[in-house]
Records
---
Amino acid sequence: MEKIKGVSRTKELVLEGIPASPGITIGPTYVYSEPRWEPVPRVISASQVPEQIQNFRNSVQAVLEDLKNTYEKIVQQYGPEIAEIIEVQIAFLEDTIFLGEVEEVINSQRYDAAYATFQVFRKKKEHFLRMSNEYFRDRAQDIQNLKERIIKHILGYDISASITIDKPVIVIADTLTPSDTVHLHKQKLLGFATNTGGKTSHTAIVARALSVPAVVGLKKITEMVESGTTVILDGSHGRVIVNPSPETIRRYKKEQQHLQVLEEKLRKESKKEAITRDGKQICLQANIEFEEELPQIKQVGAKGIGLYRTEGLFINRSDLPDEEEQTRNYTHIAETVYPHKVVIRTADIGGDKILPGIFHITEENPFLGWRAIRFWLDHKEGFLAQLKAILRANQKHNVQILLPMVSSVEEVLQVRELLEEAKHLLKKEGKPFGEPIDLGVMIEIPSAVVVADQLANVADFFSIGTNDLVQYTLAVDRGNEKVANIYSHFNPAVIRMLQMTLEAGKQANKLVGMCGEMAADPLAIPLLLAMGFECLSASPTVIPEIKQIIRRLELKECLQLYEAVKQAITTSDIVSLLKEFFQKKLPDLYEEIGA
Ligand code: PEP
Ligand code: MG
C-alpha cells in the first residue's frame, strides 16, 4: 500500500483495527518506525560454531540486562503492575530450553547466530499466533520484539530504545516494546495506534493504564501516514481516521464531549450502590486477570473481585510459580480489596491455555482434555503450592477459592482432602494462614448442572461460567467464528441450565453467582435479576454501565419479562423480548448499548 503523499494526502481515510483502550483523541501523529531485521541465511564453518554461540549468548545477555533496567524504570514510572509485561519478556529470555533451540540450529544446521535466532524465534512466534487464546496470541508480539532486539545486537547495533516525544502527539508504530513505552511521557501522549497487537498486547495494557485511547492491529497504518498528519483515533470502536474532513472533526469533537459527559456521569454513578428502584441490592464484583487491573476496581466501584483468573501467573515461563511467589501475589490482591472479598480461581490451564515452557501437552481435543482441575489432581505438588498460597493470603478472611471445570462431586471431594493436607503442611511449617476458607465450584460443564443438588452439599458457593457452559451445552467451540451464530447465552437450553443451578443453590442455601460474559451483557441484566442472581462479576470496564442499568430497573418489571422468556422457544425470540424490554423501559440506554 502506498504512503499518503501528494494528491491523496488530504483525502479522508478510515482504517479499522482492534479497540484496545477507549476514548477519542484528535491530533498530529508521530510515526515511530524501526527497521525490520531479516538476516539472510549465512552458513558458517564448524570452527565458527563456538564463536557464534557465544555471540548469541552475549546478545541475549545484553537484551536481558536492558530489560531488567527498563523493569526498574517502569516500576518507578507506572508501578509494579505494568512492569509485569517486562517480566513476561524476561521469562522468555530465561527459558533455557527455548534458547537451547537456537544453539542447536547453529550447531547442527551451521547457520550464523543472526539467522538461527531469526529462524527459531519466527517459529515460536508463529506457534503463539496459532493459539486460540487471545492472551497467548498477543505474546507473539513479545517474541517478535525480542527477536528484533537480539538480532540487532548480534549485528552490532545499539539496542537502547530511541523514542522520545516533546509535544502532544498520537504515536503510530508497528509495535511498541515495553522499553519504548518508558520513554513516552504521559502528558505528551495523546494515544497509540499500532500495526500489530491485540487486546492484551503491551501497547494495549500500557494505554489502558495511562488512560489514553489506543487502537491496535491496524496492519499497515505505519505505511499509510507520515509524522504530522492529523488523525482522529477512536479507541472505543477501533478506528483511525486519517486526514479527517472539517465535518468529520466536528462530529468527533461532539462525540468526544458526549463521552466526557457520559464518563463523568458514570464515575458519579459508580460510587452509588447497585440497587434496583424497588430496593433489590446486587453484589457487583470485578473479574480480573492481572494485578495491574487492581486500581480500576476501586474506580468503578466494584465490591471486590468475583473472579481472579490466576493463569497469568503460570504462563510464559519455564518453571512453576512457587508457593512464595503466589503468596505474595494473592496477599497483595487480598489486602488491596479488603474489606471486600477476592475469589481466587485455581489455575485453569490446559484447553487453549497451555504451558509450553513447563508441561508439553498435545491433545486431540484439548477442551475435553487435561484441563484445569483434572490437570491439577494429577499434579498434586503444584496444586498444593497454589492451595497453600491461597490459604496464606486469607489472613484477613476475605479470600475464597473457586474450582474451574468441575464435572463431578468426586473432584471436589479430592480437592477438599488436598485442602486439608495444605493446612496440615502449613501448620507443620509454622506459616500463618486464614481458616475457614470457602471452597466454591464453577458451574460450566453440563454434568455439574445436572448434579448441582449434590455438588451443593460439598461446595460453599457456585459461580456460573457461562463462557464454557454455553460451549459445552451447545457443543459449540467458543472461539470458532464459523459456529459463532449458534453460540448464545440466550439459548433456551442455557437459560434452563441457569434455572436448575439457581434452584439447587436455593434448596441448599448456597449462593449462586455468575462470572461468565453473560453477567457483562447489558441485555441480560433484567433477566438475570428476575431469575434471582444476587451476585454478578464482570470485567471492570463494564461495571459502571451494568450498575447504571441495575439502578434504573424495577424488579417487578423484570419478573414480568422473565415470565415471557420462560414461554419463548427460540434464542431469537428471547433476544427480541429482551430488546423490546430495553427499548420500552430504558430507551436512552438501548441506544447507548447499540443492541
Ligand atoms: C467461563 O467459562 O464463563 C469463565 C468465566 O471462565 P473462562 O472464561 O476463564 O474459561
Ligand atoms: Mg471457563
---
Amino acid sequence: MSTRSVFAAELPWPDYDAAVRDGRRPILVPIGSMEQHGHHMPLHVDVLLPTEFSRCVAERIDALVAPPFTYGYKSHQKSGGGNHLPGTTSLDGATLVSALKNVITEFVRHGVRKIAFMNGHFENSWFIVEGVDLALKELRWDGITDVKIVILSYWDFVTEETIKRLYPDGFPGWAVEHGGVLETSLMLALHPQLVQLERAVDHAPAKFPPYEVYPVRAEWTPPSGTLSSPKEASAAKGEILLEVCTKGIVDALRVEFG
Ligand code: ZN
Ligand code: MN
C-alpha cells in the first residue's frame, strides 16, 4: 500500500469522499493555460508550475490537489505575447467562468468548504474572480454560506529581497516576465527535461506603447514569443523561487484556512 496521493483524481472515490466530506481539508485547484512560451519551453508551463506549487503546498498543509484547468483565458499581447501566436489555445471568458463555477459547486457538493485557486497564467485573474463570485452567489441561494475560496498567483509571493537577489541587473517587471527568468528557472528546477535552454532567444525586454490595438499588431511581440530574455535563468534560481513562494503560500493558506 503506497502513501496516499495528494492528487484528488488519483484516489478511488471512497478515499476521496472520506478525505473531503467533513469540509476541513482544503482543495487546491491549479489553473493555467495552453500558451506558447518561446522556443525553449513547452506550451504547458502555466499548468505545470502551479501544479507543482500545489503539490508542494498540499504536502505541507494536508490539502488535496484538484486536476488542473489546462486551458485558460486568452493570452494578452503585453503579458503573454498574444492570442494570435501558434500553439496558444484559449477559452472565451464566459466559457472559463462557467467551467470554474461548475467545478466549485461540484466540490462543495462533495463537502469541500475550503478552495484555493493556484493561478499560473496572469490573464486568468479576473475570470477566476468572476467564477468564484457567481459560484458563491449560487451557493448562497442554496443556503450554503460556509465556503471560503482563496485566489492567488504564485509570483505575487516573490519577495522584494528575492527579486534583488535574482535580478542583480534590474527587474524588468512581471508583465514582461513571460517565458523569461522566473518561469524558465522554475521549469529548470522542476521539469528540466522539458527545457531546451540552448534554444532560448536572448533579447531586450519587450517595449509596448501605453495602449492596445485589436486586431493585435503582431510586430509588437518579439519574434521568439518570450517578452524578456530567459538567458539568466538557472535551476538554482528556480529552487529559491520555489522555496520562497511555497513558504509564502503555505503561510497565507494557514491564516485563511486555519
Ligand atoms: Zn507563463
Ligand atoms: Mn501565461
